[in-house]
Structures are given as C-alpha cells and as structure tokens.
Amino acid sequence: MDAKQSSDFPPFLERPSPWHATADVFTCLSFANWTKDLPPGSYGDVEASSDFVNREVSGEYTGGPGSVMIVRYSETPVGPYDEIIWIPGYFQVPGTDQKRPRITRIYVSLVDSVYNGRKNWNIPKE
Q1: In terms of residue numbers, what domain contains 72?
Q2: Total structural domains within the chain
Q3: Is there a domain that residue 61 lies in?
Q4: Which are the contacts of 4, defined by CB distance < 8 A and separation ≥ 6?
Q5: Averaged over 75-91, what is the pLDDT?
Q6: CA distance 9 to 11
Q7: Would you say residue 111 lies in a domain?
Q8: Cα–Cα distance between 17 and 13 in angstroms, integer?
Q9: Are 102 and 121 in contact (CB under 8 A)?
Q10: Does the residue 4 lie in any domain?
Q11: pLDDT tens-digit map of 33-74
C-alpha cells in the first residue's frame, strides 16, 4: 500500500477573508495595572521567540483595559469551532501616537482555523 504524498491533497482547508460567521461570545473584562511586561504565558511558543514580543518592532505594552473571550462559532467558512482569546490590554502602535488592543494568545479547536487565522489576519492562533 502506497503512502499518500503530501502534495496529493492540501493540508488545510483554505478560506480567504472576509469571513461571515455566527457565534455566541462570553467576554470577561479586565484592567491591567502593570505596564512593563506581561505575565508569563501571555504569548504562545512561536510568538514568544519572535519579533511579536519585541517592544521596538511591535510596540510597547501599555496596559489598560483587556479581556478574555470564549467564543463558540456555529457557522464559519471552515466549519464550527471554539476559541479562547487573551487580550491583555493596549500596545503602542509603532511609528504613531496610537494605542490599540492586541490578541497575544488564542486557542482554537480546529486546525483549519489556526491556519486561516494566521494566514488571513496574522492572529497568533494555536
């Protein structure tokens, strides 16, 4: 019996943006009073060893309002799946005087969502 070559089929279901989705969302709001470094575990393994955590490249963490979100998607282009999202607060946008919230860690239950989230929106899904 011959093993299938990886080129015989795509490894992930590709679905370009935009996505139209239906979901139920639970959000827990927080406020961070630390402003220098995030707590351990705030970044996934891939991001923790990349420029994603470099203050000079990606912007300094400034704290403020954040959230943890639990999302159950019932309809998406890749099928139903669940997410847990960690948004610790705001980060300085490099080269501007603006601050924006940033997802630093996000767990999903479907590998096709990991692939498309990273490819389409640069979201650090794992």
Answers
A1: 19-121
A2: 1
A3: yes
A4: none
A5: 97
A6: 6
A7: yes
A8: 13
A9: no
A10: no
A11: 776 778 888 998 888 889 888 888 999 999 999 999 999 999
Residue (of 89, 109, 107, 98) closest to 44 by Cα position: 107
Q: What is the mean pLDDT of the chain?
A: 90
- Using a pLDDT cut of 70, give the percent of the chain over it: 90
Q: How far apart are CA 9 and CA 6, in angstroms?
A: 6
Domain assignment present for 126: no
Yes or no: say if 126 and 114 are a contact pair by the CB < 8 Å rule.
yes
d(CA 21, CA 66): 23
Residues, the chain:
126
Say what the pTM is: 0.83
pLDDT score of 9: 63
Contact 81, 116 (CB under 8 A): no
Place of tokens 């501007």: 96
Radius of gyration of the chain (CA): 17
Range 20-43 burial, b when 16+ CB lie within 10 A, else e: eeeeeeeeeeeebeeeeebeeeeb
